[in-house]
């Protein structure tokens, strides 16, 4: 470039002047001569740097132009590629495009030209000349071959696609214009094939359903004959009303008795497996209690069991629910952030214990929980540890559940089967959207109260919060209704080992004092259970009643997409309820609490109950297998 050349020339001239000035200064060796040399050298360095910067700018300009040119060419190539692909997508499947990429088979099937004279030969077009030499219907030489060749019948060229038309050769062009298979593309042919497959599958499913109905009818007829022989009835060609009633009663009673016996055997086996883990669980509880006493510097701290392990609905792999009591001074306070903070500090003490592994701390739950695993001599024990607070009703719920299980004999076996079904489907953990054991127990008691024909259907639904008329003057009344706020007292704190850290982390301005109320004692659960049992009917305890309870449970909750129930007043439906997954189970200890509030997978639970009801109902007719095994059959089977 001219400018770049001029800059280089000026830099070279400045360097020559600097060399000349240096030679002159060496010769004269005076101050002024050396000062002139310094000025000349600085000017030469400045000219050199200007030249270097100009060269760099010129190189950057060339690189920028090269990249701009490459980007423009790349954009043009991409535009051409998109145009090609768009054109290919738009033309794909059209008759013109199909004609370009594929050719019809020229060797299509044709009929004999002498079909009008009685020949029924049809074959490939390439072999028609060989057939004409030996065709029995070939006319004499006096006939006009040109006329015969123009009028012989052929099949449609689209016969390999499904067209079954046969016509004279002279009508080929007219037929192709109206043939329904002329415009058939690969996509449409694939669609037709898929529709045919779906139709075949639907027909197969209908045939399977018909065979199942026939098999059920055969089983019913055999049962009718068996009952007729037992009752001394005359054999009949068809089942009469009297025989049908006897068959229904016989099959139902026999199947229910078998199912009830199987439920009790399963519950006994589960209880034995849980009892075998008793030593390990007791050792784990002692470890948690010892850590709590050291952390809160109090020998009054206790680790008490609640949940499924408290009322005998636990399995060998169930978590042990523990609550730490007497961990703070004074009256409990309804302050979830404070309880969560103390629980986080307590989790640090658990992590320091060698035999404890803290899996997770759920500090944002309604009742904060520590999920940990305790390693003892007899194995590992999973535990859920929480702190006693005003909103913690675990101990009262444990007493309520224990009282219901002791008084109603069919609750425990049915609950064990339901929890096993939920555990197999992964819906038994409340912290992952499943159904807790307390909710299962209340739902089973509701099904027990309603019987075969729900009495709640004859009742007007009530409001979940406004109705507390069933509670008379008793110690449980304050727990069953909204508790008033008491005057503010000195804020309850943890022990001395936790108080200093909390004081430093707390804000300088104290928040508005939250409401205070005492934790519900365990005796409240027994009192509420007595009222529930007093308001319900007298229940049977035989195997048939047990099986009916399980079937009614699956029927009541499996046929609903959204349901709200309460066990008060003999069991009733609620008009509405705050339910995330379609389930609202009112807590008799706190009518504003939904026991199934965490079951955001409630619709999956209800669908599982629906399938279980259908399987048990069908399995009652089987004679040579366990009825309860049908409950745990996979959906694919």
Describe the structure.
By secondary structure, this protein is of the alpha+beta class. Helix 17 packs across helix 18. The two termini are 83 Å apart. About 12% of the residues have low confidence.
The gist of it:
The chain is of the alpha+beta class.
Which keywords apply here?
alpha+beta, 4-stranded mixed sheet, 637 residues, 18 helices
Q: Tell the overall outline.
A: flat
Helical segment count: 18
Main sheet attributes: strand count, strand direction, barrel closure? 5 strands, mixed
Strand order of the largest sheet: 5-6-9-8-7
C-alpha termini separation: 83 Å
Number of strands: 13
Output the structural class.
alpha+beta
Taken as a percent bin, the fraction of beta residues is 5-15%
Question: Helicity range of the residues?
Answer: 40-55%
Taking pLDDT < 50 over at least 5 consecutive residues as the criterion, the unreliable ranges are 142-148, 235-244, 453-458, 464-516
């Amino acid at each position: 470039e001219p400018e770049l050349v001029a800059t280089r020339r000026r830099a070279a001239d400045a360097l020559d002047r600097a060399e000349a000035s240096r030679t002159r200064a060496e010769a004269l060796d005076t101050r002024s001569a050396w000062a002139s040399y310094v000025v000349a050298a600085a000017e030469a360095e400045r000219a050199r740097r200007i030249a270097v910067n100009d060269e760099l700018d010129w190189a950057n300009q060339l690189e920028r132009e090269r990249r701009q040119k490459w980007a423009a060419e790349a954009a043009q190539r991409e535009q051409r590629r998109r145009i090609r692909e768009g054109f290919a997508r738009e033309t794909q499947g059209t008759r013109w495009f199909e004609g370009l990429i594929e050719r019809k088979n020229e060797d299509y099937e044709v009929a004999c030209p002498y079909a009008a004279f009685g020949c029924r030969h049809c074959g490939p077009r390439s072999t028609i000349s060989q057939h004409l030499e030996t065709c029995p219907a070939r006319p004499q030489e006096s006939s006009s071959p040109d006329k015969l060749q123009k009028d012989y019948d052929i099949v449609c060229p689209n016969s390999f696609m499904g067209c079954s038309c046969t016509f004279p050769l002279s009508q080929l062009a007219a037929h192709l214009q109206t043939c329904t298979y002329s415009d058939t593309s690969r996509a449409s042919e694939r669609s037709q094939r898929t529709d045919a497959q779906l139709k075949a599958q639907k027909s197969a499913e209908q045939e399977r359903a018909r065979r199942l109905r026939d098999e059920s009818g055969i089983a019913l007829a055999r049962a009718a004959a068996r009952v007729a022989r037992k009752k001394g009835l005359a054999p009949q060609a068809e089942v009469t009303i009297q025989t049908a009633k006897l068959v229904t009663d016989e099959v139902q009673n026999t199947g229910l008795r078998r199912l009830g016996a199987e439920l009790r055997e399963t519950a006994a086996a589960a209880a034995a497996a849980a009892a075998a883990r008793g030593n390990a669980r007791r050792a784990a509880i002692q470890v948690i209690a010892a850590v709590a006493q050291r952390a809160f510097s109090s020998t009054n701290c206790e680790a008490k069991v609640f949940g499924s392990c408290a009322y005998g609905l636990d399995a060998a792999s169930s978590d042990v629910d523990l609550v730490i009591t007497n961990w703070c001074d004074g009256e409990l306070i309804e302050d979830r952030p404070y309880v969560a903070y103390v629980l986080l500090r307590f989790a640090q003490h658990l992590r320091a214990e060698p035999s404890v592994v803290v899996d997770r701390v759920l500090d944002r739950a309604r009742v904060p929980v520590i999920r940990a695993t305790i390693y003892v001599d007899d194995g590992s024990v999973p535990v859920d540890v929480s702190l006693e607070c005003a909103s913690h009703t675990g101990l009262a719920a444990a007493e309520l559940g224990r009282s219901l299980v002791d008084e109603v004999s069919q609750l425990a076996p049915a609950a064990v089967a339901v929890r096993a079904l939920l555990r197999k489907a992964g819906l038994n953990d409340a912290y992952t959207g499943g159904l807790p054991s307390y909710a299962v127990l209340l739902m089973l008691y509701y099904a027990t109260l309603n019987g075969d024909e729900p009495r709640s259907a004859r009742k007007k639904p009530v409001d979940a919060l406004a109705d507390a008329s069933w509670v008379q003057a008793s110690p449980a009344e304050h727990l069953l209704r909204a508790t008033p706020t008491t005057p503010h007292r000195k804020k309850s704190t943890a022990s001395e080992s936790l108080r200093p850290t909390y004081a430093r982390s707390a804000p300088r301005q104290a928040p508005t004092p939250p409401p205070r109320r005492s934790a519900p004692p365990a005796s409240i659960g027994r009192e509420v259970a007595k009222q529930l049992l007093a308001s319900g009917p007298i229940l049977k305890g035989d195997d048939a009643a047990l099986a009916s309870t399980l079937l009614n449970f699956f029927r009541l909750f499996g046929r609903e997409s959204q349901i709200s129930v309460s066990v008060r007043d003999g069991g009733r439906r609620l008009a509405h309820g705050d339910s995330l997954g379609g389930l609202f189970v009112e807590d008799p200890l706190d009518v504003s609490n939904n026991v199934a509030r965490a079951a955001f997978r409630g619709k999956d639970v209800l669908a599982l109950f629906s399938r279980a009801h259908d399987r048990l109902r069908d399995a009652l007719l089987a004679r040579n297998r366990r009825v309860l095994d049908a409950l745990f059959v996979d959906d694919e089977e």
